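Intended use. Records such as the SCP2 domain-containing protein entry shown here are meant for training and evaluating sequence-to-structure methods. They are not intended to support clinical decisions.
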Amino acid sequence: MATTQLKSDAIMDMMKQHLSTDAGKELTEKIGLVYQINVAPKKLGFEEVTYIVDLKKGEVTKGKYEGGKVDATFSFKDDDFVKVATGKMNPQIAFIRGAMKIKGSLSAAQKFTPDIFPKPSKL
């Protein structure tokens, strides 16, 4: 299986750095949820890369969550995830259009907004 370089990798790396800042620590205190984000290079459900955004501990990891059950799971195509993370696409619009799929708690999912991502200064 070929490893594809996703644009989402850069955003997740920035997210890791962001969570170590004071603003990131505020997010963890405010939200306190664990999200699983599945990003597919081209088609949902195929060759997905799984990221865990743990807003309880304030960390971002690649791979399955080891700490039990995640609060909500999102599935995106790489390009759509980048649009949502950079604020170019509203998460509700992405969901309505089918660009984002959600499993788990909808109340937890509603706290997943572009505000949790670092501002796109480097994108």
